[in-house]
Model the fold of this input.
Amino acid sequence: MNRDKKTIGILCVLVAVLLVFAWLYQKKTFSPDDAEPVTAQGFKLNTIVTVTLYDSDDEDLAQEALDLCDKYEKLFSRTLSSSELYQLNERSLPSSDGWYTLSQETADLIETGLSYSSLSQGAFDLTIEPVSSLWNFTSEEKVVPDKSAVEAALPLVDYTKITLNGNHIRFDSPDMGLDLGAVAKGYIADRIKDFLVEKGIKSGIINLGGNVLCIGGRTDGTPFKIGIQKPFADRSETLCTVDISDKSVVSSGIYERCFELDGQFYHHILDPSTGYPYDNGLVSVTIISDKSVDGDGLSTTCFALGLEKGLELINSLENVEAIFITENYQIHYSDDFQDTVAVS
Done:
């Protein structure tokens, strides 16, 4: 995606970042009958993760929920050498006749990734790992992989060339690999919510670096207000706020992990057909859904599909709404968004 001198000043500025603003953690956001929330926060999954409970004073419970991130990182991390996914990609897991045995959690997440790969007809492809491993969007060093390396990796990207049977998987090529980054945080948020609901929590917010999942609403019965930042503006300026109860709000966009080199802008959402970042006129896609894993998968899928096809997909689904933001700063809502989601 090329940027001329008029736009270079806004490259990598956060766009449409989903925030639960500071007032949600201060008394002024609560009714007089509300108690102080309990919060656990830490750097997990390469982001800041926050678990906030509004109807409990159990700090240990909040911390226990937060620590679940460590369990799932040991399963799903593409870069952690001890993780199950890393060992699968390296073919060091137990196998029999080419079939590798997975934990049920990893098998479930791969199944979800395959479903969105199929839904997008490969515009989102969980076998992007041979290509995504060539890029590093978290390092301060700005490096574009060699064209020859990208071209050599592209034939290995094809979700139809893996077979999942229960918790067993096999690959058509020994050099194929999986990248579950587009769905993992949503899955983990859902599991944290399941854990807290089982413990009796009815009011809380799970925020995995912008993947926001609400448990119920506020303790006074009103929805949480989740702010969506105004594009290319200060964090305190909101595009809008949405009223959310017991739903997920997830965004994917060019601002999340990116860099500029030699006048060229690069971001982490890679096109499986080229091996380079998508350049389709979109800045971000925000999804509101019941489950966070669906919001995670759909936000990436819809970004990959582009505005027209992405909106068409969302409008064909039930109980899912979306906001698309384009490079000209126009906002596009799914058909039923403003009828089903309170926006202010």
Summary: The longest strand covers residues 282-289. Residues 101 and 232 are 46 Å apart (CA to CA).
